[in-house]
Amino acid sequence: MLDAIINNTGRIDIHTNKLGLARSILAFSTLITITFNNPYELINPMNIHNIYIEDSKLYSQLNYFLIFKDTPIVAVLFAILGLFILISGYLQFITSVFYWWLTFSISSFSLIEGGDQIASILAFLLIPICFTDTRKNHWQKHDVSLTNKKEIYNCVANLTRYVIILQMSVLYFIASTAKFNNTYWIDGTAIYYWLNNNIFGVNDGLLGFVNYLLYKNYLIFTITWSVLIIELLLSISFLLNKSLRKVILYVGISFHLGIAILHGLISFSLAMIGGLILYISSLDRGF
User: Fold this and answer.
1) Which one, out of 112, 119, 183, 223, has a CA that is 20 to 30 A from the CA of 142?
2) pTM exceeds 0.90
């Protein structure tokens, strides 16, 4: 059985520059988070969720930022340097572990947009994929010096990618179906309330124009239900053929760019776009 798995998955090489693009987009989302948040707020231990271990020093021992709690600027500068090295494509063995540590540390804080938690999960799942990547730089299209050992590397990478596919599918499925229990989503008015929300709503420069459009009931209803349908389609996209997956990938990217523009959730949207590339894109075909 093991031989069959290796034969089926060992021939597919997902270590291409599309993988590098997805990693870089994820890293850029984290870069935005640490660059545009006050470092003293990131370091503040009061912002840490101590849900599982009350009054424990576990987070102090594992959290990247609390190690530098007396010098938060240094913590941010080292994190930025590490993220730029990751984006450059070199030292995947080191940057994959560092990126998970960094996103794990950020996701322990009271940030409410969700993108950092998603990035942390994907960063953890990317570690075995990066460990089995024999390229010197993740922007290379392929590693031309394939060996017999590389088939085992491909097998490990592909099996891990299947976990990412399952994770993203469940995420979008829950995101869509959970809304069916909410009256405002069913009656088609939820988008109006979200765009006027005092935290996640549209910025003042766009609010007047957006509300002018949303006073048209048919537009509110169409946009609200399109969100449900897009998320549901994204949840099952891995079951479709390559041409349909490509269309849904562009729809998903446009969907999250719209969230970035209207709600200002830029790092969240970038994390989801990076996840979509890992989830739907034909990684074995470099660009």
Assistant:
1) 119
2) no
